[in-house]
Design a protein that fits this description.
The complex is a heterodimer of chains A (about 190) and B (about 325). Chain A is α+β, with helices and mostly antiparallel strands. Chain A contains five helices and eleven strands. Chain A has helices at about 20-25, 95-100, 125-130, 140, 160-165; strands spanning about 5-10, 40, 45, 50, 55, 75-80, 85, 105-110, 120, 150, 180-185. Chain A is globular and about 55 Å long. The two termini of chain A are about 30 Å apart. The mean pLDDT of chain A is about 95. With about 325 residues, chain B is mainly alpha-helical. Chain B has one domain: Up-down Bundle (Formate dehydrogenase/DMSO reductase fold), CATH 1.20.1630.10. Helix content of chain B is about 70%, strand content about 0%. Classes of the chains: A alpha+beta (about 190), B mainly alpha (about 325). At the A-B interface, helix 1, strand 2 and helix 2 of A face helix 3 and helix 11 of B. The structure holds iron/sulfur cluster (3 copies).
Chain lengths: ~190, ~325
Amino acid sequence: MTRYVMVVDQSRCIGCQSCTVACRTWNDLPLDIIYNPVVSEGTKGTFPDVYRTWTPTQCMHCANPECVPCCPTGASQQDDDGTVWVDYEKCMGCKVCVNACPYGMRDVSHMVPRFDQYVRKCTFCRSRRAQDPAAEPYCVATCHQRARIFGDIDDPESEVSKLINTNYTERIFTELGTDPQIYYIPEMGGGAR
Amino acid sequence: MKHHYWEAPIVIYLFLGGLGGGIFFLSALFDLIITPGAGPLFFAPVFFALAALALGCFFLVFELGQPPVFWRVFTTKTAIIKWGAVLLSVAMIFGFVWWASYLYVLGWEWTFGLAAALEGIRPIMLGIAGIAGFGIMVYTGVMLSTLKAHAFWATPALPVLFTVSALSTACAAIALSLGGAVDVNVIGAVVAELIHEIVHVVDIVLVVAEITVLLIMVLSFYGAGNVTAQAVAKRWVRGKTAPLFWGGMIFGGLVLPLLLYILAAGSAGSEILAPILVLCGGLLLRYLCVYSDERAPIPGEERFYERLPKKDAAFLTAWTKGKNLY
Ligand code: SF4
Ligand code: SF4
Ligand code: SF4
């Protein structure tokens, strides 16, 4: 079976937000929707020993997503390969899933006509992969630092499997039981790999 | 940039849903068990329950991103809000049939045949509407408490609080409308007096219970909640929501009506003002809870959104040439 995940190497990310812009472009997002903000708590330490880390975020494509069983229309769903996505033709904009996601990774735009609002979220570039099965999500293809790596965790030969097996990784809010599938290799000093 | 979580229409929906459900539940209890035959006295309360549920549904649909396709809510098996919609529909349909069977109390001749035809099924109609009404009261709280992304909602105390509050507002509405639109005879007046007495005492108990559950919930979050829930509790207890919580909710919506119920029994203060305050308190409770939708941020997330330009920032409008795109 195929199970798509993403590995994010925080020691490589420089916070340029290229991935964020690439995502907006590919998905033609309205201004008030951002699928993959790259966030930071700011500069830490005391001069001259200062540092800053960046956390590229996006939908965690949880193995046990909060946002799917709560959807009354079946619009919010998960593919066998783990991709969580919303069928815009079925969504009625009730926002239960927006309230359910512990990561704040879905929302309706208020910049579209009032009675034509549906929920949008990252789909691991489902539409790109449908056009070309070998294509990576656009944020991954755009990242010049190779900080975002996409692949099949069920394939032991994939780059993501190797990275996860050979590095210490962290995931966000695992205590909620969502089993998120974005694996972070944290910045632990020592510079980029 | 704040996420587009639920807003005022959902506040009103949760309040009216609980109120309507509660009236159905209590009407069924009285008419079927406590004071059998009191049906006509509940003609007006059940009318208000139907109106509350219909208006509540309107606000629920209005909050949808796509109101014309609201019927999609019925299309899956599992979702909790689908069950809410089913309970609302059942209560409204069966409640309406029961209510229509009593239309004759208005003296309209064309309804006499209807009353005769429906007389036999009245108990089953009200029974089903009452059970669905109970479900709605519980559901309004469960809907929020299953959303564990919002720490302040994700507590079993919330459905308890909403159910107690729904019953209490239903008592208040029944106290205000019992026997309305009906020409009450002597026996009816005695029964109405009895029901008023019971509802009066029951609402005293419910208001005390609501104060207890509310304080336990808020103060335990205040003392020992996780960071997010504790921040909300602090806002309620001594932050910017404190005047509304202590002054509006606790005093105006609970303690003052309680004092009026007990100390001014029999006066207009107890029979009219106190129930109105209880109803306002119920609405305020839903408002305070729905707008306590704080979610634990991913470290750095708040800083990111704070720094985004507002959507109408002049340079953005100029840059995008008025179009909704980068
Ligand atoms: S494009 Fe790569 S380096 Fe730039 S912010 Fe995104 S993940 Fe970080
Ligand atoms: S991060 Fe949120 S939107 Fe994405 S799968 Fe998990 S719960 Fe659903
Ligand atoms: S907003 Fe759309 S996708 Fe989300 S729960 Fe409602 S119908 Fe489902």
